[in-house]
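Working notes for the structural subgroup meeting. M.R. asked for a predicted model of this chain before we commit to crystallization trials. I am recording the input and output together here so anyone reviewing the notebook later can reproduce the run.

Input as submitted:
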Amino acid sequence: MNKEDQLYKTIDAILDVIAENPRMGESIEFKLIPKSIKKKYPDLDNLLRVKVTRDWRLLYTLVGYPNNKKYMF
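Returned structure, recorded in token form:
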């Protein structure tokens, strides 16, 4: 992805906001996290989602927050 692409710029701006407010994303209920992600990241205990564009979502996790398999926040 080129740094001049609009998608790159949008993701970069969202990452800046997440750095200031890590809980800005929508918490995904643990049972709704795809098995493929759970298998690839077995220690995953939270997953958050931010809408980037109409067709794109950014998924991220927080490290060091309390464990809660139902909802993180």
